[in-house]
Amino acid sequence: MEPYNSSMYDLHCHMLPAIDDGPVDLETSLEMARMAAADGITTVACTPHIYPGMYDNNRLGILAAISAFQAQLDERDIQLKLVEGADVHVDPNLIAGLHSGAVPTLAGSRYLLLEPPHHVAPPNFEHNVFELMTAGYIPVITHPERLSWVETHYDLFTRLTQRGAWMQITAGVLTGRYGRRVQYWGDKFVAEGQCMILATDAHHPQRRPPLLAEARDAAAKLVGETEAQHMVLTRPRGIVQNVPPEQLPPPLCLQPGWTPDPKAAARRESVRPGRPAGFIARLMGKSRH
């Protein structure tokens, strides 16, 4: 294992100024960049939304924005390397856009960020993921733990992992920045070996900051330091280098004989939100958990 304090890669970050719902101006972007560098992040994938009709970004525009922002970082000696990417929504023309070069993958690799709808489970999502894989891409599904429908579809994500899709959990989720419900599901993905990478999904210096080290440390309490390091360095670096997935450390759930640590399960339950009390429980002054 490499030294635990080595560099980290953040492959889901909205840091480019005035291109989507991230920072509105250059100064805010620069503040985010300084925070990321101070946290130990050395490589950032700039991943603005591509959502037809709302954020009509494309690869050429994203590359131009990255080049301009990298020049600003270099001028100020902010030690971050920027690579391309996009937070891509499911769209009937997605594969055609990837083949034509209009839609960027992560650092030009076979891996791409795929964002599911937040509030509605799409009926063909599993099929869409397999179509991308058949076309030669590895979908990295973003923040499944934050979807409102994860409670009823957790088994969908475990099936996708078994078939070769990757899961990216949001860093701040593991430290409680998004509340107990989302932390429960983030911990579950990590503790049950279903998380391949952690990323910040940062949008703002204060509200959604580009901090990764605290999440690495939280993940280490669930699955150990080696696996936590894989989530923020080994696998993300492999993505940037376009390493085939079979040559990278597999997720824990696919490792023969691996079972979740009971202590990790206990920690996960400790942040599980309480359920509403039933009538009898309320009557007796008790609540269910």
TrEMBL record:
Keywords carried by this UniProt record: Hydrolase
Cross-referenced SUPFAM superfamilies: PHP domain-like (SSF89550)
Enzyme Commission number, as recorded: 3.1.3.48
UniProt cross-references to InterPro entries, sorted A to Z: Caps_polysacc_synth_CpsB/CapC, Pol/histidinol_Pase-like
Catalytic function, reaction form: O-phospho-L-tyrosyl-[protein] + H2O = L-tyrosyl-[protein] + phosphate
Keyword hit for tRNA processing: no
An example Gene Ontology molecular-function term: protein tyrosine phosphatase activity
Enzyme class, UniProt record, top EC level: hydrolase
Family under the similarity heading: Belongs to the metallo-dependent hydrolases superfamily. CpsB/CapC family.
Protein name: protein-tyrosine-phosphatase
Source organism: Aquilutibacter rugosus
Source organism phylogeny: Bacteria, Pseudomonadati, Pseudomonadota, Gammaproteobacteria, Lysobacterales
